[in-house]
Amino acid sequence: MPFPQHRPRRMRATPALRSLVRETTLAPGDLVLPLFVHEQDGRAPIGAMPGVDRLSVQDAVAECGEAVRLGLGGVLLFGIPDHKDPQGTQAYAPEGIVQRATRAIKAAHPDLLVITDVCLCEYTDHGHCGHVQEDGTVDNDASLELLVATAVSHARAGADVVAPSDMMDGRVGAIRAGLDAAGHPTTPVLSYCTKYASAYYGPFREAADSTPAFGDRRSYQLDPANGDEGVREALQDVQEGADMLLVKPALPYLDLIWRVKEATRMPVAAYNVSGEYAMVKAAAAAGHIDERAVVLETLTSIRRAGADVVITYHAKDAATWLT
Fold it and tell me: I need a labelling partner for 153 at 20 to 30 A (CA). Which of 70, 88, 298, 300 fits?
């Protein structure tokens, strides 16, 4: 019916009505908290990411206790080793930092979902996500064996989900086969299927000490101008056996979250990345925005775009505000 019979504002008149017809929900259980675990004792603040620290294994266990208390959906572990080499051997070492942290967290909080990042960039002295050849190019196929070894070592340590973020072709299928052969057929693979070569990763590279020593990652991460390619990557990873899919970053790629969800009908996660977090923190510190309102609106928009799960450094604050 035309105005004045039809008045959409009727359903916005009171908080109760707005709540009753709200289309998108946001709850602590929708959120995953990333954690950076290092070999040092204690916490080390990350300058570009106020409120986020590198954590010892003991501090990571305590942080996971907070995640449990707040009802978060899980945590995502990134490791920062003391020793780096061309092959990234600490990524798949049985006593590597992520492996030790995973065992300690699962012993203390057995019901908390622990997702582990499967990549080599934090562990290689050159900072790239795979094996680098003499000419400086990343060798896709030679990298697969190392990524499989990393995923299997994480599963053996007790990881609930492994999440390859390297963007090598064929790694999902290789990891699925490797997990099955190693006796971990029920360990899901959360694939960073649609990961862009983004300018929003800057603070993360400080946090994870993973800035490439030369070149960049544009030969294996997606071109920000390409949407169809991102969907094709997602579909290929589904064919290779991915159990969940991830779009990264989130806010500049809300359209890809929607398109991946529509194309695959698979569980989709979105990563609200370090640059997005840092901008909100900087604007809030300057008094330009209401941090709580902006964070909750941002996370709701990511969910509205189709994300079943949001990985975010705001997770603890958001959960506190929501409850």
Answer: 70
Domain extent, residue 308, equals 25-322
Strand ranges (E), the chain: 31-38, 44-45, 53-55, 74-80, 114-118, 131-132, 138-139, 161-164, 190-195, 244-248, 268-272, 309-312
The pLDDT of residue 68 is 98
Domain count, the chain: 1
State what percent of residues in the chain have pLDDT above 70.
Answer: 100
205 is in an annotated binding site: yes
Catalytic residues: 195, 248
| CA–CA distances in Å: residue 70 to residues 24, 232, 277 | 21, 36, 20
Would 9 be classed as within a structural domain?
no
| Residue 217 assigned to a binding site | yes
Q: How far is CA 157 from CA 110, 139, 182, in A?
A: 12, 28, 13
Does residue 16 belong to any structural domain of this protein? no
Name the stretches of the chain with pLDDT < 50.
none
10 within a domain of the structure (yes/no): no
129: helix, strand or coil: coil
